[in-house]
Design a protein that fits this description.
Layout (H helix, E strand, L loop, with lengths): L5 H10 L11 H8 L8 H18 L3 E3 L6 E3 L1 H15 L2 H8 L1
Helix pairs in contact: 2-3
């Protein structure tokens, strides 16, 4: 995972959205968030498969926890801090940081 890449940053932004904090997120929710254009015939299945692989990757990095006996995932409490820090690092402007440091 490269948090500075556009696709991974979009994934981190989608996963860290506060609307998922109460009930958690599902594959279907993440597909709808990441892909805003309507799907073609076979494209919907490919999107869902790709998001499944991304969910497994996030679980492997201990950023997501599966809710037992459901198809939902929660962002791990310590992972919320890590994701917010990575997104802040990505969105930081070096010129502004230099001015503030001086």
């Amino acid at each position: 995972m490269n948090p500075l890449a556009k696709e991974d940053a979009a994934l981190f932004t989608a996963v860290s959205d506060p609307k998922w904090m109460v009930n958690g997120l599902r594959n279907r929710d993440l597909v709808a968030t990441l892909y805003t254009t309507p799907a073609e015939d076979d494209n919907e299945r490919r999107r869902s498969s790709r998001v499944t692989r991304l969910l497994r990757l996030l679980r492997a990095y201990h950023l997501l926890e599966k809710v037992p006996r459901t198809h939902r995932y929660h962002v791990a409490p310590e992972a919320q801090i890590k994701i917010k820090a990575l997104l802040a690092c990505r969105n930081a402007n070096p010129d502004d940081l230099t001015k503030k440091a001086a």
